[in-house]
Amino acid sequence: MKESYPWLPDTSWRELAPFWEGLRRGQLMLPRCPRCGRFQWYPQAMCPGCRHIGLEWVQVAPYGRVYTYTVLRRSFVPGFEGRLPLIIAFVEMEEAPGPRLITNLIDADEDEVAVGAPVEIVFREVGSDVTLPFARLRRKGGST
Amino acid sequence: MASLVRTEDTLSSSGNKVAIVGVGETEYVRRSEKDIKTLIMEAIIAAIDDAGISPDEIDGIVSEASIVPAIMPGDEVAANLGLAETRLAATIGCAGAGVVGAILLGVQAIASGLCNTVLSYFGVNWGSDPAGPYGFHGKDMYKASLEMPFAFYGQPVYFAAIARRYMHEFGLTTDHLGSLAVATRAWASLNPTAMKREPITLEDYYRSPLIADPLRVLDCCLITDGAAAFIMTSAGRARGCRRRPVYVAGAAYSQGRYSGHSSLTQREDLLFTQAQVSGPRAMAMAGVTPRDVDFLEVYDCFTITALMQIEDLGFCGKGEAGPLVAEGRTAPGGQLPVNTHGGLLSHAYVLGINHVVEAVYQLRGEAGARQVPDARVGVVAGSGAWDHATVVLTR
Q: A1 falls in which pLDDT band (50, 70, 90)?
């Protein structure tokens, strides 16, 4: 993207480093308990399911469905004004029950989005060394 | 329901009954010329005067935990009052849940004999603070990393996403949301201290701008500079106070398993609040059911938030609050008066301490044009991201 992206995450924060590294490789990585297999998002020290300490990051296929969404008309983060209306979606991944990825649905009209709509996660470099995961509708007969 | 209440939770034995004996509020405005610490101390002095006690009787200070410590912590309040010693200074819970949950701390402190008289207070200057109500959210690293890059930020946006899924699951409509805004404003029109008093219609609601679909400006609470406070003491001491005591018949706080911002995005039951636990627990402690409740003051940061809690507290089933409100049953003259002062939507956004104060006015019979006839049992419910508190007040 030419213009500077309005809000970049601090990718040096250790807690989420495997997430950002995965995105740079074009992979969606999510934390999972190595003992009971429960996905935990956002990450934390202990698995709340079996109380094992220490999650592992695993690659997840980039396919999911819209759990809910909102069409933003006014941004509370400065810099997004020129990008409105912006579709914000919660995406649940097919291979990782539990986590909801907060993202934007791109390349879609606001009347195309619906609860349950199938989406694919795509990876876009938005800053130097920062790649974000966005969602795109999986339309019938279409593919990336 | 019985399993929610332990025998030691019962507040009915007169020996450890606790009363609210004084309330105080500043005026509520968008931008005050006074700084927030001055506003808080004015509200506290007003509550002390209302109770007719000496400030030196206060030996405990309780408040909300996520916002107040950065604005004016209890030790600073004690220093302003010149209290020689405070036996308890404690905070609890997030936002509205903490404001109401503080009553539980006061009850426990007084009923156990630790304290005699406990002060609770809350105030914000989010009208004049440039960061407004959003500022304290940006400090959460998960939010800054995983949500703000997608402009998922600001309370209206969070609750818009919840409302959208609620429509999908439970048949909520925008008419339902709008009806709550209209009913709440009808109450505010009867309250001279409400910030917004002009009555509105559903047409006005649909004319108000969308912020984050489906939520409009009129789905959102106000932004306010202001403060309020109240005084709790034992039933024995209460009898000598200036005003008729209002008793805490039940008080419950419930924290869910999700912390911080994950509670607004990752909770599997995102469409439920901890009110489904704190409500029945508080009412069981008080020995009442929703049918016995004369009025409800419920945390209404957004229309959707109030509707969810009316259901979760047990006043109706899931998905039934919208129709109930649309039929006018929560409006003036309805069977279940809700937010009789005008709520956070139309009275003031001081995170529900105004709900506590209003419940006290109603139970004393001092609510003027908006008085609920013969009000005997009131419920106050406060919500925060991951937790909830409910109290039952009686006269």
A: very low
Question: Residue B356: inside a domain, yes or no?
Answer: yes
Catalytic-labelled residue, pool B205, B247, B258, B349: B349
**Within-domain flag for A6:** no
Contacts of B159 in chain A (CB under 8 A): none
Residue B271 Cα distances to A88, B268, B274, B275, B296, angstroms = 18, 8, 10, 11, 21
> Can you give the CATH number for the domain in which B333 is found?
3.40.47.10
Which residues span the domain enclosing B90? 14-128+222-394
- B74 near B88, Cβ under 8 Å? no
Q: What is the mean pLDDT of chain A?
A: 94
To the query of whether residue B349 is one of the catalytic residues in this protein, the response is yes
DSSP symbols for B205-238: HHHSPEEETTEEGGGB----EEEEEEEEEEHHHH
Q: Is residue A131 part of a domain?
A: yes
Beta carbons of A71 and B213 less than 8 Å apart: yes
Q: Which of B134, B143, B145 to mutate to test the interface with A (most CBs of A within 10 A)?
A: B145
Q: Which two tokens stand for residue B234?
A: 């034992």
Interface of B with A in 124-163 (CB under 8 A): 134, 141-142, 144-154, 156-157, 160-162
- Does A143 reside within a domain? no
267-296 of B, contacting A, C-beta below 8 A: 268, 270
Is residue B50, in this structure, part of any structural domain at all? yes
Paired with A32 in beta bridges are: A39, A56
Which of B134, B150, B261 is nearest residue A88 as measured by Cβ atoms?
Answer: B150
What domain count does chain B have?
A: 1
pLDDT of residue B139: 75
Q: Determine the pLDDT at residue B14.
A: 47
Are the beta carbons of B209 and B217 closer than 8 angstroms? yes
**Assigned domain for B170 exists:** no
Reported as a pLDDT band with limits 50, 70 and 90, residue B257 is confident
Residue B135 inside a domain? The answer is: no
**Vertex A127: Cα angle to A121 and A131 (nearest 5):** 25
Which range of residues forms the domain containing residue A29? 14-137
User: What ipTM, to 2 d.p.?
Assistant: 0.96
d(CA B182, CA A53): 50
Answer whether A74 touches B (CB < 8 Å): yes
Judge: A126–B149 Cβ closer than 8 Å, yes or no. Answer: yes
The tally of domains found in chain A comes to: 1
Best of A8, A51, A102, A134 to disrupt the B interface by mutation (most B CBs within 10 Å)? A102
Query: Could you read off the pLDDT of B174-227 as tens digits, one per residue?
Result: 999 999 999 999 999 999 999 999 999 999 999 999 999 999 999 999 999 999
A-B contacts (CB, under 8 Å) = 106
The per-residue pLDDT of chain B, averaged, comes to 94
Q: In this predicted model, what pLDDT tens digit does every residue of A12-45 receive, in sequence order?
A: 999 999 999 999 999 999 999 999 999 999 999 9
**Residue B206 is a catalytic residue:** no
Would you call B308 exposed, middle or buried from its count of C-beta atoms within 10 A (0-12, 13-18, 19+)? buried
* Confidence (pTM): 0.95
On whether residue A42 sits in a domain, the answer given is: yes
Report the pLDDT value the prediction gives residue B61, as an integer from 0 to 100: 98
Q: Which of B149, B156, B266 shows the shortest C-beta gap to A7? A: B149
